[in-house]
C-alpha cells in the first residue's frame, strides 16, 4: 500500500471533515430558518446544518454547541452592501443550555459566544430596522427576560424582565418600535422599543379568551328564514370579541392554547393568532377579530402559519405535514347571488393550493415549515426523522375545469415583470416570486382589470427536493479498502453503514451523499467487511429465542449490481450468534467467529467452507489476520515456470517472430491465471482464548496448520481485540490495558489507559503509517505505536456529549465515528469536531450563492450582471470582459454564473430587459433586502412619473390619478403602506374601516370607528354611529352634541375660527386626538398633520396626509417626515429615501445616495432617471451635471478598484469633465484614450438620453 502523498495530482481524495446527520431531537423542532441569503439553517442535536434548497445539498455543518440547538436565525440583509460591509453569511443559534453563538458560516468559525442564563433560549431575532448597526440581536432568556446583545462582540446592551413567562415575540414590520410578546397568560404589547435603552413601560397587557369560551358575545339567534350556520361560520360567531384588558374569569378561559402570534407583513396593524383549529386575524387599532380561518370538525389541525409580505396570503402547516396556501379574497362588489353577509363581513382566506401529507407515525412527525423570504413561493418542511422536503409553488395559466360548486373567484397573473410592464417579446420567469405569479387582491370600489390582458392562474405545489438523513442508531460502519497506486484510477471513498432495520447505506465521502441504499437483512446489522472495492460481506443476528439460539444472516453484496446472496447458504437458522467476521489481507479467506461454537474458515473466492473447527477448539475472544503472506514469491515462481513453458513452445518457430509470440503467450497465460485465480497464497491469523493464550494458524489453499502458541501475559486481563500491521501487534483487554508487541525486536510493552473496556482497535491505512484508533465505552483515542504514545483523545462529557458506537479510518489521517446522536462524523486525527470551510468543499452540484465568494468577487459578479451588455454583447462568460484578477477568482465567479438556471440566464441576456428590471432582478438573485426594497419603490415611481410626463399631467397629480384606472403597471403593493399612491391608500383605508364597522361589538369599538370615519372625511356615516350611543352611557350627551356639530359645520369664518381655537387649546392640554379630529372637520387637515408631527406622531401624520390632503400639502408633510427620518437620532435615511421616491424628489434621492457613499446605487439610479426622462425638469442644468459627473466618476473608481477596467472607462467617459482625469489614469501608457470613449462622443453631455442606440453604447459595462 502506498501513502497518498507520493502520487500528486492524480485523484482528489482529500476528504473534507464532515458530519452525516440523522434524526432530530424534539428540542430541535423550532430550530430552522430560511435566510435572505437563500440558504436554510437547521438544528440537528447539537449541530447546525446549512442546506442549499435549490440543489438540496448540505453544504456546511456547524459544530460547537454542547447542548441541543433550539433556535437558529440568519442575519437580515437590510443594509447597503459595499466592500466595507460585504455580503456575509452570519447566523445566530441558541441552545438548550442558554448559550448563543454567532457564526461566520463560510469559515465555520464563531464570531462570538453569549451566555446569560442556563435555560433554553426561547426566541431570537436580528434587528433590521435602523441604519446604524446591523449587529443587534434580541433574545428571550427564560423565564421572563428579554436581552439585547451586540452580536458581533457579544456585549450585553440592556436587559428587561416582565411579569409573566415569555414564549416568543414578534416585531411590527411597519414600525420597529412596536413589538408583541406572547406570554403564558396572554399578549404584552410594547410600543416604545428602541435599541438605545430597555422599554420604559411594562407594556399593555391583554388576555386572550379562548375562542370557544366567549358566550356573552354570540350573535342573536338568526331569523328562522336564514339557514343555520355551519362549521366555520359558527366559529366566526363565537369569536366576536377575543381580546380583553381584564383577566378573564376562571370558567371563561381555558389555558392559553395560542400556538403563535405574528404581525402581518402585508398590511399595517394586523396580527394573526394561531390556534390548533383556527387562525384569527386581528385589527390592532380596534383589538378586534376581522377574519377567521377555521378548520371543519373533520379537518387536520394547524401547527404553524407564516404570513406573506408580497401578497395577503398565509402558508399553513397542518399536523399531517400538509402545507396549504390561503390567499385573501378580494372585497370587490360581490355578485348579487353570493351570500351578501359573507362578502362584506370578513376577511376571507381561500384555500388555493395544498401539498401532499406525509405518513405520520410515532417517530415520524412534521416539525416546522420555512418559506423563502425573497420569493415567498418555496417552502421547506423539516420532519422529525431528519428529512427536509422542499416544495415549490407553480402557476398554471389558463382555465382548468373547476367544479361548478366552487365559489372561488379566479386568481390572475400580473401583466408586469420585475416592476415594469412586459414588452411584446420579452422573456420572463413567471415563478420568480409570489408577486410575479398572482396579482394583488382587489379592494372594494376598485374596477377589476380587463380580463383580456390577464390570464387566470391555478397554483400547485411541486416537490422539488428531498434531503434524507441517517436512520435511527445503532450503526455498524466500515470504510472500503484504502487507496493504492493500483486502484487510483477508479477509487471511490465509500463508507458502508449497517443500520438497525437491516439495510446497508453506502455513502460517498467525497460528496457526503448517499451512493446506494440496500435492503440486505431482516434484523439489525452487526458488522460489515469489504472483500473488494465494490463488494462486501455483512452479518446480522435476530433476537435470541429462549434457548439462546438466533437466526444468523451472512450476506455477500455486490455494489454495482446490488446483487445479494446468502454466503453460508442454508446454514444459520438455529445456532449461536455470530460474534465477528474477519477477512484476510488478500481477501482470500474469511473467519466467522460464533458465541458458543467453534469458528468456521471459508474461501471467499469460491464461497466454500474450508474448515469447521472441532468441538474442543478453544473459545475465541479476539482475532486478527496477519499482514504477511507469500504472494510475491509465488508469483515469481509462477512467472518463471510460464516463461520456460512459453520458450519450449516457440523454440521451433522462426527467429523473427519469437519475441512477439513469447509476449503474446505470456499475456495469454497471465490472463488465464487471472481468471482462474489459481494461486492460493499462504496467510496467517492469530487469536486469543479466554485465558489470554495467543494461537497462530496458517492457511494455504485448503490446508490449515496450527503454529506456535504464546502463553498469556500476566499483566493483561481478558483480551478483547487485536490489531496487526507490519511488525507491530497490539492487544487490548477488558480492563483498559493496551499491549504493544514489536515482533522484529521481540519486545512487548503494556500501557494501562484506565479507561475501561477496549472495544475496538484499528490501524490507519498507508505504508509506514503506524497510527492506531482505539475505542472505549466512553470515547476514543488515537495512539502512535512507533513512539507508543497517545496523539489525541475524546471523552463523553468532557469534550463531546455523544457516545461513540463504532469507529474506522477513512483515510490515512482522518477517522470516521458513528455516535448515538444519530450522526456519523468524519474528523481530523485530532478529533476536534471542526466545521469546515465551505469554499474548500467538493459539491456535486454547483450552488448559486454569491455570499461564498470573497467580498471583491461578489461585487464584481454583481456589477457584471448589472452592467450588461459588455461592449455591446450580452454574455454570461466573465472571460470576455476586461477584468484583471487571479484566474482562481475568475474561475469561482464563472462557477457562480454557470450555476444560474437557464431561464435566469436567458432573461439576464434579454435585450428587452430594462435597467430598472435588471436592478430588481439582480437584487433578488443576491437576496439583498435593502436593494430590493429600494428598486421596487424606485421603479414604480420612476415609471409613473415618466408616464405622467408623457401625458403632460402635472407631477403632483400623477400621484393622485384616478384609482379606477391605475398606470399600466398597477399600484405599489399595499405592503409598502404610506409609500403607496394616495388614492389607492385611501380606498384601502375606507375598505378597512368598513370592515371594522361591521365587526364592532362594543361601545369602545363604535367610538373608534366613528373617529376613523371623521378623519377619513366620511361624516354622514360617522354621525350615524355617534347617534347609536345608548342613553345610559356616560358619553351619551357628548356623542349627541358631537353628532350635531358634525352635521351643522359650515365653512363660515366665525365658526371656523372658534373651532380652530378650541382644537388648538385641546391639543395644548394633551387631547391631541380630539383636537386633530376637530381640525379635520373644518378641512384644516394640514394643520392637524403639523400638530401631529410636533408631538412626535410622525406615522399618524403621514397616514392623515395620505387620506385627507391634496397632493401639494401632502407632499410638504411627507417631506418634513423625510427630514425627521434623516436626523441623527432617528437615523433611518434608507426609509427617508423611499418616502422621497414616492414624492418624485428624484434629484434629492440621487444626492442622498451619493452623499451616503452608495456609489453603485447612486450611479444606476441616476442613469435610470435619465432613461425615464424625469430628471431635468426644474433643476438648473449645472447642478444636475455636477451630480451626474460626481456620481458616475465615483462609480467608475469603484469599478476600477474591482478590476473592471472596461466598465470604469465607460462610466468615467460619461461623467464629463470630472471623468477626464480618471480616463487618463486608466489608459496611461496605452496611447491615450481608446477611440469611441471620449466625452466628445456624447451628444450634449449626459443629461440628454437620446435614441436607443445611444443608450446601448453608454450602457456597455458589466461586472463579473
From TrEMBL:
Pfam families: Beta-prop_WDR11_1st, Beta-prop_WDR11_2nd, TPR_WDR11. Residues 492-832 form the WDR11 second beta-propeller domain. The keyword Nucleus applies. The keyword Transport does not apply. GO terms for cellular component: axoneme; cytoplasmic vesicle; Golgi apparatus; nucleus. Residues 1255-1264 have a biased composition (Basic and acidic residues). InterPro entries: Beta-prop_WDR11_1st (IPR057852), Beta-prop_WDR11_2nd (IPR057853), TPR_WDR11 (IPR057854), WD40/YVTN_repeat-like_dom_sf (IPR015943), WD40_repeat_dom_sf (IPR036322), WD40_rpt (IPR001680), WDR11 (IPR039694). Gene3D superfamilies: YVTN repeat-like/Quinoprotein amine dehydrogenase (2.130.10.10). Keywords: Cell projection, Cytoplasm, Cytoplasmic vesicle, Cytoskeleton, Golgi apparatus, Nucleus, Phosphoprotein, Repeat, WD repeat. Residues 207-230, 1227-1264 are annotated as: Disordered. GO terms for biological process: animal organ development; cilium assembly. This is WD repeat-containing protein 11. It comes from Gadus morhua.
Amino acid at each position: 500500500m502506498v501513502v497518498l502523498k507520493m502520487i500528486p495530482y492524480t485523484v482528489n481524495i482529500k476528504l473534507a471533515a464532515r458530519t452525516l446527520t440523522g434524526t432530530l431531537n424534539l428540542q430541535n423542532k423550532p430550530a430552522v430558518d430560511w435566510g435572505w441569503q437563500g440558504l436554510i439553517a437547521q438544528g440537528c442535536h447539537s449541530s447546525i446544518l446549512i442546506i442549499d434548497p435549490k440543489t438540496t445539498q448540505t453544504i456546511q455543518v456547524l459544530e460547537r454547541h454542547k447542548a441541543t440547538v433550539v433556535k437558529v436565525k440568519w442575519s437580515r440583509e437590510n443594509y447597503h452592501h459595499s466592500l466595507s460591509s460585504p455580503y456575509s453569511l452570519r447566523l445566530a443559534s441558541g441552545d438548550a443550555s442558554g448559550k448563543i453563538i454567532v457564526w461566520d458560516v463560510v469559515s465555520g468559525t464563531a464570531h462570538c459566544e453569549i451566555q446569560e442564563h442556563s435555560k433554553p433560549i426561547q426566541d431570537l431575532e436580528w434587528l433590521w430596522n435602523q441604519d446604524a448597526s446591523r449587529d443587534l440581536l434580541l433574545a428571550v432568556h427564560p423565564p421572563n427576560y428579554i436581552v439585547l446583545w451586540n452580536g458581533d462582540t457579544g456585549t450585553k446592551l440592556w436587559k428587561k424582565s416582565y411579569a409573566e413567562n415569555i414564549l416568543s415575540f414578534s416585531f411590527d414590520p411597519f414600525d420597529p418600535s412596536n413589538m408583541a410578546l406572547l406570554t403564558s397568560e396572554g399578549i404584552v404589547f410594547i410600543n416604545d422599543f428602541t435599541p438605545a435603552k430597555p422599554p420604559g413601560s411594562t407594556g399593555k397587557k391583554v388576555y386572550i379568551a379562548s375562542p370557544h369560551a366567549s358566550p356573552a358575545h354570540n350573535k342573536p339567534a338568526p331569523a328562522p328564514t336564514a339557514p343555520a350556520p355551519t362549521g366555520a361560520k359558527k366559529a366566526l360567531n363565537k369569536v366576536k370579541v377575543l381580546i380583553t384588558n381584564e383577566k378573564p374569569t376562571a370558567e371563561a378561559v381555558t389555558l392559553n392554547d395560542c400556538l403563535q402570534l405574528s404581525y402581518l407583513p402585508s398590511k399595517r396593524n394586523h396580527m394573526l393568532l394561531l390556534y390548533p383549529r383556527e387562525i384569527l386575524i386581528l385589527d390592532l387599532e380596534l383589538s378586534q377579530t376581522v377574519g377567521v380561518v377555521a378548520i371543519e370538525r373533520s379537518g387536520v389541525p394547524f401547527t404553524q402559519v407564516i404570513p406573506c409580505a408580497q401578497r395577503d396570503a398565509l402558508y399553513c402547516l397542518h399536523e399531517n405535514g400538509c402545507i396549504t396556501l390561503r390567499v385573501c379574497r378580494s372585497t370587490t362588489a360581490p355578485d348579487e347571488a353570493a351570500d351578501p353577509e359573507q362578502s362584506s363581513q370578513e376577511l376571507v382566506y381561500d384555500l388555493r393550493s395544498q401539498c401532499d401529507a406525509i405518513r405520520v407515525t410515532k417517530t415520524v412527525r412534521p416539525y416546522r415549515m420555512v418559506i423563502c423570504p425573497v420569493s415567498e413561493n418555496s417552502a421547506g418542511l423539516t420532519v422529525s426523522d431528519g428529512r427536509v422536503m422542499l416544495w415549490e409553488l407553480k402557476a398554471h395559466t389558463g382555465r382548468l375545469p373547476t367544479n361548478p360548486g366552487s365559489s372561488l373567484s379566479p386568481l390572475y397573473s400580473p401583466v408586469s415583470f420585475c416592476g415594469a410592464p412586459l414588452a411584446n417579446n420579452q422573456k420572463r420567469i413567471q415563478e420568480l416570486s409570489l408577486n410575479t405569479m398572482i396579482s394583488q387582491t382587489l379592494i372594494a370600489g376598485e374596477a377589476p382589470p380587463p380580463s383580456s390582458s390577464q390570464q387566470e392562474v391555478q397554483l400547485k405545489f411541486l416537490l422539488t427536493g428531498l434531503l434524507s438523513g441517517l436512520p435511527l442508531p445503532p450503526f455498524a460502519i466500515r470504510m472500503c479498502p484504502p487507496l493504492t497506486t493500483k486502484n487510483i484510477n477508479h477509487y471511490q471513498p465509500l463508507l458502508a453503514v449497517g443500520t438497525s432495520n437491516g439495510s446497508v447505506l453506502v455513502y460517498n465521502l467525497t460528496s457526503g451523499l448517499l451512493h446506494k441504499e440496500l435492503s440486505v437483512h431482516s434484523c439489525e446489522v452487526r458488522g460489515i467487511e469489504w472483500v473488494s472495492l465494490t463488494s462486501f460481506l455483512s452479518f446480522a443476528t435476530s433476537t435470541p429465542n429462549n434457548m439462546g439460539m438466533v437466526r444468523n444472516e451472512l450476506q455477500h453484496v455486490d455494489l454495482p449490481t446490488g446483487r445479494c446472496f446468502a454466503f453460508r447458504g442454508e446454514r444459520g437458522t438455529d445456532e449461536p450468534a455470530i460474534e465477528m467476521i474477519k477477512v484476510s489481507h488478500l481477501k482470500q479467506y474469511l473467519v466467522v467467529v460464533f458465541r458458543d461454537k467453534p469458528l468456521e474458515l471459508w474461501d471467499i473466492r469460491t464461497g466454500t467452507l474450508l474448515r469447521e473447527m472441532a468441538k474442543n477448539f478453544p473459545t475465541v475472544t479476539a482475532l486478527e489476520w496477519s499482514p504477511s503472506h507469500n504472494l510475491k514469491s509465488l508469483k515469481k515462481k509462477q512467472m518463471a515456470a510460464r516463461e520456460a513453458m512459453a520458450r519450449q513452445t516457440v523454440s521451433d518457430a522462426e527467429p523473427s517472430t519469437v519475441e512477439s509470440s513469447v509476449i503474446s503467450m505470456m499475456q495469454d497465460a497471465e490472463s488465464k491465471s487471472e481468471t482462474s485465480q489459481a494461486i492460493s497464497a499462504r496467510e496467517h491469523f492469530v487469536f486469543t482464548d479466554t485465558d489470554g493464550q495467543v494461537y497462530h494458524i496458517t492457511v494455504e489453499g485448503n490446508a490449515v496448520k496450527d503454529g506456535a502458541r504464546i502463553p498469556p501475559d500476566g499483566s493483561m486481563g481478558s483480551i478483547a481485540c487485536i490489531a496487526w500491521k507490519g511488525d507491530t501487534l497490539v492487544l487490548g483487554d477488558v480492563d483498559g490495558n493496551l499491549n504493544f508487541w514489536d515482533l522484529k525486536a521481540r519486545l512487548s510493552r503494556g500501557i494501562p489507559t484506565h479507561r475501561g473496556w477496549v472495544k475496538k482497535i484499528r490501524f490507519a491505512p498507508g505504508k509506514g503509517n503506524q497510527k492506531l484508533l482505539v475505542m472505549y465505552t466512553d470515547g476514543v483515542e488515537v495512539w502512535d505505536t512507533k513512539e507508543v504514545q497517545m496523539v489525541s483523545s475524546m471523552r463523553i462529557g468532557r469534550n463531546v456529549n455523544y457516545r461513540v458506537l463504532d469507529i474506522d479510518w477513512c483515510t490515512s489521517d482522518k477517522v470516521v465515528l458513528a455516535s448515538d446522536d444519530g450522526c456519523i462524523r468524519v474528523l481530523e486525527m485530532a478529533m476536534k469536531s471542526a466545521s469546515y470551510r465551505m469554499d474548500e468543499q467538493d459539491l456535486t452540484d454547483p450552488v448559486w450563492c454569491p455570499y461564498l465568494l470573497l467580498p471583491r468577487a461578489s461585487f464584481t459578479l454583481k456589477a457584471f450582471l448589472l452592467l450588461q451588455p459588455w461592449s455591446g454583447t450580452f454574455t454570461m462568460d466573465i472571460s470576455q470582459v476586461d477584468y484583471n484578477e487571479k484566474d482562481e477568482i475568475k474561475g469561482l465567479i464563472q462557477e457562480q454564473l454557470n450555476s444560474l438556471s437557464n431561464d435566469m440566464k436567458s432573461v439576464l441576456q434579454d435585450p428587452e430587459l430594462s435597467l430598472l428590471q435588471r436592478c430588481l432582478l439582480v437584487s433578488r438573485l443576491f437576496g439583498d433586502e435593502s436593494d430590493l426594497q429600494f428598486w421596487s419603490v424606485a421603479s414604480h415611481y420612476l415609471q409613473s412619473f415618466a408616464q405622467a410626463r408623457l401625458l403632460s399631467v402635472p407631477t403632483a397629480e400623477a400621484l393622485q390619478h384616478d384609482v379606477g384606472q391605475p398606470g399600466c403597471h398597477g399600484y405599489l403593493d399595499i405592503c409598502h403602506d404610506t409609500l403607496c399612491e394616495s388614492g389607492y391608500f385611501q380606498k384601502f383605508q375606507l375598505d378597512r374601516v368598513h370592515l371594522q364597522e361591521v365587526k364592532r361589538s362594543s361601545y369602545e369599538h363604535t367610538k373608534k370607528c366613528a373617529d376613523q370615519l371623521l378623519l377619513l372625511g366620511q361624516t354622514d356615516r360617522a354621525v350615524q354611529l355617534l347617534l347609536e350611543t345608548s342613553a345610559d352611557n356616560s358619553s351619551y350627551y357628548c356623542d349627541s352634541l358631537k353628532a350635531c356639530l358634525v352635521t351643522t359645520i359650515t365653512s363660515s369664518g366665525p365658526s371656523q375660527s372658534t373651532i380652530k381655537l378650541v382644537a388648538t387649546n385641546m391639543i395644548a392640554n394633551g387631547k391631541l386626538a380630539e383636537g386633530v379630529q376637530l381640525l379635520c372637520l373644518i378641512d384644516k387637515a394640514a394643520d392637524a398633520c403639523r400638530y401631529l408631527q410636533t408631538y412626535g406622531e410622525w406615522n399618524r401624520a403621514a397616514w392623515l396626509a395620505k387620506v385627507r390632503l391634496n397632493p401639494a400639502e401632502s407632499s410638504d408633510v411627507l417631506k418634513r417626515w423625510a427630514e425627521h427620518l434623516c436626523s441623527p437620532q432617528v437615523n433611518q435615511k434608507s426609509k427617508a429615501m423611499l418616502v422621497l421616491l414616492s414624492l418624485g424628489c428624484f434629484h434629492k434621492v440621487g444626492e442622498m445616495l451619493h452623499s451616503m457613499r452608495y456609489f453603485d446605487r447612486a450611479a444606476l439610479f441616476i442613469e435610470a432617471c435619465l432613461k425615464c426622462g424625469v430628471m431635468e425638469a426644474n433643476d438648473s442644468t449645472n447642478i444636475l451635471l455636477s451630480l451626474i459627473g460626481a456620481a458616475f466618476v465615483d462609480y467608475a473608481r469603484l469599478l476600477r478598484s474591482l478590476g473592471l477596467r472596461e466598465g470604469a472607462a465607460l462610466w468615467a467617459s460619461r461623467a464629463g469633465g470630472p471623468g477626464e482625469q480618471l480616463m487618463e489614469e486608466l489608459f496611461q501608457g496605452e496611447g491615450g484614450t481608446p477611440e469611441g470613449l471620449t466625452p466628445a462622443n456624447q451628444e450634449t453631455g449626459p443629461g440628454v438620453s437620446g435614441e436607443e442606440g445611444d443608450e446601448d453604447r453608454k450602457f456597455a459595462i458589466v461586472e463579473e
